[in-house]
Amino acid sequence: GENVEQHPSTLSVQEGDSAVIKCTYSDSASNYFPWYKQELGKRPQLIIDIRSNVGEKKDQRIAVTLNKTAKHFSLHITETQPEDSAVYFCAASNRDTGNQFYFGTGTSLTVIP
Amino acid sequence: NAGVMQNPRHLVRRRGQEARLRCSPMKGHSHVYWYRQLPEEGLKFMVYLQKENIIDESGMPKERFSAEFPKEGPSILRIQQVVRGDSAAYFCASSPRTSVETQYFGPGTRLLVL
Questions:
Q1: For residues A92 and B109, what is the distance between their CA atoms, to the nearest angstrom?
Q2: CA of B92, closest CA in chain A: separation in Å?
Q3: CA-based nearest distance A44→chain B, Å
C-alpha cells in the first residue's frame, strides 16, 4: 500500500518568512496530492491540491510542487502570517482505485509574530 | 449547502460498551470515507463506502469495527466492545459523484474510552 512520509514534524518561522514542508510517497500509481490545514480541535481543511499531470500549482501565498520521478511533493507558504499557524498534512491517493487518502504524519507550523 | 455533519461531537464510553458514530455527507455526495486520528498523529484511512456498498475496508480492524452507508440516512461507524486504544478522533469525509477527488471533512467525533 501507499506510504507517505512528511518532514519536518515541527517548523517555526518568523512572520513574513517562507515555510516549506516536504512529503514523499511510495506508490507510483498515486495521482492526486491534496494538502490539508488543521487547527487545534478543528476539522482538516483543504488548502491546495495537485494532480499528477501538473508540476506546480499556486494560489496566492500557497504553492505546491510535484516531482513524479522522485515521488515527492512540497508545500510552500510565502509571507507567513500568525494565522498560518496550524498542523499541515499532505496526502496521496489514486483517483482510479477509490481515492482513499494516505496522509503524512503532519507538520506543526508556528509563525512567530 | 450544509457541510459534512457528524454526531455526536464528543462521546464517552466505558470499556466493553458500543460506540456509534454518525456521518451525514454533504448534499449530493455519494462517497463517504472514514479516518481515525490518534492523539498527535496523522489521519489513517479506515473505510470507503458508497450508498449501500462497502468499497474498501482495508484500513478498518477486522474485529469489533463495522461501517454502513444505507440508502437513506447517515453513514454509521460502529465500534463494539470498545477498548482504551479506540480513544481517538474519528473523521468522515465526503466527495461528490462528479468530481471524486476533493474530500470535505466533517468536524469529527472525539471518542474517549474510560
A1: 24
A2: 10
A3: 6
